């Protein structure tokens, strides 16, 4: 076999008979690798767009969850406030009941005292009438 003097020097002819430094197989593999890299870069770009959209969606959901959490805390605070108001009102009403019971007891004692006075006065009047 005859040796290819250009091949030994690292020079090769491609399918268009252009002089190349790389072997045709290596050149072809380089082109394929370049195309695969471009596809990979395109897919990475698409992936980044998808992930960006997902991140935006998650951020929006997080904001909505935080807003709902704040509303729930507000509702809980209102409920606690209402509960405290009811307790205070119940204590006021219980104090009013105690006060009214004491007033009723005073009126009962006063009524009994007035009945005694009336009985004494009636007895005095009856005796006065009998003496005349």
TrEMBL record:
The keyword Coiled coil applies. Keywords: Cell projection, Coiled coil. The keyword Coiled coil applies. GO terms for biological process: cilium assembly; protein localization to cilium. Residues 79-117 form a coiled coil. GO terms for cellular component: centrosome; ciliary basal body; ciliary base; cytoplasm; intraciliary transport particle; neuron projection; non-motile cilium. It is found in: Cell projection, Cilium. InterPro entries: FT20. Its main location: other. It comes from the Eukaryota. This is Intraflagellar transport protein 20 homolog. The lineage of its organism: Eukaryota, Metazoa, Chordata, Craniata, Vertebrata. The gene is LOC113058461.
